[in-house]
Amino acid sequence: MENLIGLNQENMGAISSRVEKPTYNRDSITTSIVHIGVGNFHRSHQAFYAHELMQNHGVLDCGICGVGLMDFDQKIYKVLKDQDGLYTLMIKELDGTFTAKVIGSIVEFIFGPENPSAVIEKIAHPDIKIISLTITEGGYNLNEGTGKFDFSNPLIQQDLENPEAPKTVFGYITQALKLRKTRGEHGLTIQSCDNIQENGEVAKKALTEFIKKAEPELVDWVQENVSFPNAMVDRITPVTVAEDIETLKEKFQIEDKWPVVCEPFNQWVVEDHFVSGRPAWEKVGVQFVENVLPYENMKLRLLNAGHSCLGILGALHGYNTIDQVATDKDFSKFLKDFMDVEVTPTLGSLDGMDLDAYKQTLLDRFQNVYIKDLISRICLESSAKIPIFLLSTLRDQLKGNQNIDRITLVIAAWCKYNDGVDENNNTYEIKDVMKDTLIKAAELSHKNPIAFLEINSIFGDLVNNDVFVNAFVSALNKVRNKSIKDCIQEINIS
Ligand code: CS2
Fold it and tell me: How far apart are CA 73 and CA 240, in angstroms?
């Protein structure tokens, strides 16, 4: 292809005017946010909001310093370094059109394994007001069964033994906060952007437990100087595929090594507790509320749980992407009934929210055929997702003696999913930190179904609930002996 323009600051002038480019002076940006975990979601969501604030309101005090702590972050570090932090966001509408925006809000990037002290110094810098996190559901290192911080994690052990050369987010933040305290710096806000109920509380709990052991004399300072607002974050952001990179080349002659694709919908609902202030995000549609819990519940139990249902069931059927499952009438009916019958009664009152409209929008979003959201992305790390997305609803339904047919079918299907082969005899990889345990339990469950529910860190005391256990045994028997479509159709007409 001729005349390709590599994406970087110097080439911005040469990039097509059909692409939205930063019109603000990136040299004048102040970095006040350190973000840990610069995945596609951060780049379609928080970095997008910061960009909009800069672009449309000239607010330049919300620059982001990206930080990668995991070995796999080296790739994004290299790309953003080559591209001066710039990347293209491809917002794909339901009608197949898309808007391309070059996002300019990430102005620095540090790769922890290469330079740990640079990360610590950056977080300790006086300009920093917020540390935001997308470290995944499992990243908070809390045992689902006991709710306790997992000190047996070897990386945590190593951070306790070598505090100056940390490896985990907890070790890094602790060292940086210690510096802030010693230097008399102001406190800051730790803002979780992960899909966890009360994500701020969870972040606080995990970090505080770690600090109590690592630096007990820092606990009081953190108590007084660090806030942890809860938030609900939302924007479906699939894995970038080679075709996306090619589309940018063909349509706009842009050579972007790692663009991000996302849907038009985006939402961010946050509790307004920022000890050292925050950017004026309300100008770009961020909702500030007193209590984010109802919004979180709604999103985790409908969207994320809906994703898990479609992902797990779709994987067994042999589908590859969420839109394929969501546009299959049997699966979409199952999903709709799951939301109406089994989730909605658990949501409590949602003042001012039009729940029916929200659910309808969700179905439309899942059906967006231009967002090729891979089932493999959705099924990734299910052991950390299922307890948050599905088991909370299950527990509530059990408490109220209510319908659990669909949830139970999905859990049984997840057990079968861990056999690693779909109905067409195609194998797939199970990507999960608990992979070995899951595969073993699924294997045992062929003879003894309850073996799967005995994974204590996932199911906890649910294994003692007769109503659920009986329903699970019967559902597992069905999914092992019939096609998943037949199982769904049976429930759909019941
Ligand atoms: C997905 C989420 O990881 C998952 O299973 O449900 O990544 C989802 O796409 C986002 O939370 C959307 O906001």
Answer: 15
Q: How many CB atoms lie within 10 A of CB 424?
A: 8
Query: Residue 69 in contact with residue 113, Cβ under 8 Å?
Result: yes
- pLDDT 10s digits, 11-25: 999 999 999 999 999
245 three-class SS: helix
Which residues, in sequence order, are CB contacts of 383 under 8 Å at separation 6+? 138, 432, 433, 434, 437, 438, 455, 457, 458
Work out which ligand 1 atom sits closest to the CA atom of 267: 13
Rounded to the nearest 5 percent, the helix, strand and coil shares of the chain are 50, 15, 35
136 in Cβ contact with 169 (< 8 Å): no
289 exposure class (CB count in 10 Å sphere: 0-12, 13-18, 19+): middle
User: Which residue from 41, 295, 304 has its CB within 8 A of the most atoms of ligand 1, so it is best to mutate?
Assistant: 304
**Confidence check on the interface: ipTM exceeds 0.85, yes or no:** yes
Considering the entire predicted model, what is its pTM? 0.97
Handedness of CA 165, 170, 176, 179 (dihedral sign): negative
Q: Which of 238, 234, 258 is nearest to 373 (CA)?
A: 238
Token pair belonging to 474: 């019967």
Helix (H/G/I), strand (E/B), else coil: 254? strand
Distance from the CA of 94 to the center of ligand 1, in angstroms? 18
